[in-house]
Write a structure and sequence with these properties.
alpha/beta; eight-stranded mixed beta sheet; 18% strand; 39% helix; two-stranded antiparallel sheet
């Protein structure tokens, strides 16, 4: 009786395949364990990112690092940010008049026929880091998907320019858009503000200032906004103080640079959640992340808007962390959130 022999090549490769399968299975269970927290389940990709930050001991404000080095360290996005044309017709870098000199802006023009609605976009970064490049991917997508002209504003940064410099620049950019809307073939009746993190704070404060000056905005989009810098004691601040990307230490450092005078922390222009009048503000979309220290700020602000009769949509991404909307190379929810923002803006500026 003859028996078929297993080919030598197959015999040699079987241990390799088995080893790979073992590695894959172990990796799956390992990542799964990283997603489990006392506060719910993290998105697996976000969990991997947090584990990487933990293992590498990444510290934005590493001892001895200057502000310039902090900005350089943070601006590349660690390979998490996609880049590319994203279907816009034109991108232009220019400068506009500001209260302390020229303000750099980047203007994104979508395909189609003008006049277009306008979205003033203010980037995040704790009022200290971030620039026109770090949020280029978001602005390109918003311009294409809304569609709208997006004006991304490089407001002055702290600590060189403390409060209210950034907000003064934000107001100047709104006044510029309103003043130049006709000649630039933009629709002055369809202007919205949007921003993430610190930029969302500026957008909220600017919405109050615009209303008080009789300037009408069509909408405001606040992406994981920090809206009360006077107290960092909400449930989400306590739960996510450490280990979830944006730490309490980072927030305190940003606050120290942006508002060195602690008596101003309760100023509604710094902490819009503490404003006394929420009536007649523009319709709002508030985007929050489930594992973000500022999650409860966004929810509380949405409640105040709702209580004042302002149309508001609160949208929470439960498995996400602060900053996720920029991380479109890693996190699919980034694109989902931009789609939601664009859809909301488009519906309010038709």
């Amino acid at each position: 009786m003859f028996h078929k022999k297993t080919p030598v090549a197959v015999t040699a490769v079987l241990p390799v395949i088995t080893a790979l399968l073992v590695v894959i299975v172990v990796s799956i269970f390992m990542v799964r364990s990283w997603t489990l927290t006392p506060y719910g389940r993290l998105d697996p990709r976000a969990a991997i990112l947090l584990k990487y930050v933990e293992i590498r001991k990444i510290d934005l404000f590493e001892k001895g690092r200057s502000i310039g080095q902090v900005r350089e360290f943070s601006k590349h996005g660690g390979g998490l940010v996609m880049s590319g044309p994203a279907g816009v017709r034109k991108v232009e870098n220019t400068e506009i008049p500001g209260p302390a000199g020229k303000i750099p802006v980047r203007i994104y023009v979508p395909e189609g026929e003008p006049p277009f609605p306008v979205v003033l976009f203010f980037h995040g970064g704790g009022y200290v880091i971030g620039d026109l490049d770090t949020h280029d991917n978001i602005c390109r997508k918003l311009s294409r998907k809304t569609p709208a002209v997006v004006v991304s504003v490089q407001y002055r940064l702290a600590p060189e320019h403390a409060f209210p410099a950034a907000l003064d620049d934000a107001l100047a950019s709104l006044q510029w858009v309103l003043g130049s809307a006709g000649p630039m073939r933009r629709d002055p009746e369809r202007i919205a503000v949007a921003g993430d993190s610190a930029g969302a704070n500026l957008s909220a404060a600017l919405s109050h200032m615009a209303r008080d000056r009789g300037l009408k905005l069509a909408a405001q989009v606040l992406i994981y906004p920090g809206l009360d810098l006077s107290s960092l004691e909400t449930g989400s601040h306590v739960s996510f103080a450490k280990g979830y990307y944006l730490t309490r230490r980072y927030i305190e450092k940003f606050r120290e640079y942006y508002v060195p005078d602690r008596s101003k922390w309760t100023d509604p222009r710094v902490s819009p959640l503490l404003a006394t009048n929420f009536r007649d503000l523009p319709p709002a979309l508030v985007v929050t992340a489930g594992f973000d220290p500022f999650r409860d700020d966004g929810a509380a602000y949405a409640e105040k808007l709702k209580g004042a009769g302002v149309p508001v949509l609160l949208s929470n991404y439960p498995g996400m962390i602060h900053g996720f909307i920029s991380m479109d190379r890693l996190l699919p929810d980034a694109d989902s959130a931009v789609d939601e923002c664009a859809s909301f803006l488009g519906s309010k500026m038709r």
